[in-house]
Amino acid sequence: LPLALSATDATPLPEAVRATGRALFAAEEHSGVDLDALVAAVHPDPGNPRPLVTVSVDLDRAALAGIDLPGLRAEGVAAGTESAPLELALMATHAPDGSLRLRLRYDADLFDAATADGYLAELEERLAGVTAAPGEEAAPSEEPEPGEEAVPREEPVPREDAAPGEQAAAPDTATLLREIWESLLGVRGFPDDSNFFDL
Asked: Which DSSP symbol is given to 97?
């Protein structure tokens, strides 16, 4: 669905999340509208009938290739979630080891490779910022200049474990995500088995 949402770099994250939620619910109420008719009504330019870019983001889980069944052998293949061809589509596959495999499909008539790579670089930087440890800033992604060879990134040196009692045990991922969403949405004590969209 096309969403009407206005936000700037100065918009606080909680307000951006709430505004996105309001925009999603408002769009859902008008989901039966004919998009082509709507675009033609607001932008009646015969030379540019579809000024909007259709974008999709899909999240899927990797197949359980390692499942052990009698007389059956399974092997993972390099394939992610698929969707109908759109102008721009990002497919993220959640691997069993917890990592994400990203795949970007785009219309080469609308986007060039440099633009698509720029989108992925910005996404990587934002994901690094979201997953950075408290008090640490994610290192900005450094893209090589055109014509320069990319320099392999150095692997981070693992930190030594803190002595017992120096720091409290870190919460598991599910608990941490729950705390973040509760803080952003201003909702506490929501039952674990309730519908997320009821928030």
From this structure: T
pLDDT along the chain (199 residues), means of 10: 77 87 83 71 62 72 63 64 66 80 82 87 85 66 46 43 49 76 74 64
- 35 and 59 belong to one structural domain: no
Q: How far apart are CA 101 and CA 95, in angstroms?
A: 7
Give 100-107 contacts, CB < 8 A, sequence gap 24+.
Answer: 101/62
The phi-psi region of residue 182 (left if phi > 0; otherwise alpha if psi is between -120 and 50; otherwise beta) is: alpha
Is the full-model pTM beyond 0.70? no
Asked if 122 and 68 sit in the same domain, the reply is yes
Tell me how far apart the alpha carbons of residues 183 and 17 are, in angstroms, rounded to a whole number: 11
Domain interval for residue 8: 1-52
Would you say 171 and 133 are in contact if contact means Cβ atoms under 8 Å apart? no
Contact of 114 with 81, CB cutoff 8 Å = no
What gap in Å lies between CA 53 and CA 32, rounded to an integer?
Answer: 19
CA dist 168 → 11, 55, 140 (Å): 33, 42, 29
Note whether 30 and 17 are same-domain residues: yes
Q: What are the contacts of 95-99 at 24+ separation with CB within 8 A?
A: 95/62, 96/62, 96/64, 96/66
Indicate the SS3 state at residue 130.
Answer: helix
